[in-house]
Amino acid sequence: MNYSKKIFCQPLLWVIALFLISSGCQPKTEEQATAENRETDTESKLEPLTTENVVEVLTSYEKEHADSLVLISTRHGDIKLRLYSETPLHRANFVRLTKAGFYDQGEFYRVVKGFAVQGGDSDTRTMKNGAYKIPQEFNPKYIHKRGALAMARYGDERNPEKESSSHNFYIVQGEPKTVQELRAFEAKHNMKYTPQQIKLYTTIGGEPSLDQEYTVFGEVIEGMDVVDKISEEQVDGQNWPHTIVPHKIKTINQ
């Protein structure tokens, strides 16, 4: 599969700490992506969004769709997630893509055992959602604990405001951290963890290196064992599974 065509990169720390330099993740310009979208708009159930209208459309959509529970189905089983109301643009975007069937053409395409699994994209997708990014919605309440759901984004040079990808998401695995490590991340990110957050990071684990870098907008409430199974997939040198892991996503009753 030719993942060099992907628009959005994996989380930046993957590039630096785990992939070093990934030649397979070269972002396209918005102009290139928009041109490709025009060619296939007739195949899409979605009205493609743009940088200019994304906030207006998602704000309006969020008022009409208060869905907060979603189910990701894979060949390894189901993952149930709760989306946060305090990140309304990200929640609305995820629900909008889900209801349109966009994520039913996606897969978990990048896997780093002990770190995270990333999904949302596929080279075989025919639906297009437009060339846009989502304004970041950082919230100190929501950290990259084990089971956190967050959106990937462009790297810093191309995206100083740390806006999120339109569709690529990841679920955190992570490992337990020491209090000393957490203090270092507090200083780096100019933040302060609560006692409860410190307990989470030192017991169940997570990836504090990503806090205040990527928007966390939900969490796994059932099915972390499925995330762990996905993380066991055999991968190539760029952490792409040898056997694809397709996913289907739907909203479920509250």
From TrEMBL:
One of the record's GO molecular function terms: peptidyl-prolyl cis-trans isomerase activity
Gene3D superfamilies: Cyclophilin-like (2.40.100.10)
InterPro entries found in the cross-reference section: Cyclophilin-like_dom_sf, Cyclophilin-type_PPIase_dom, Cyclophilin_A-like
Signal peptide extent: 1-27
Entry-linked PROSITE patterns: CSA_PPIASE_2, PROKAR_LIPOPROTEIN
The keyword Signal is annotated on this UniProt entry: yes
Protein's UniProt keywords contain 4Fe-4S: no
The protein, known as: peptidylprolyl isomerase
Lineage of the species this protein comes from: Bacteria, Pseudomonadati, Bacteroidota, Cytophagia, Cytophagales
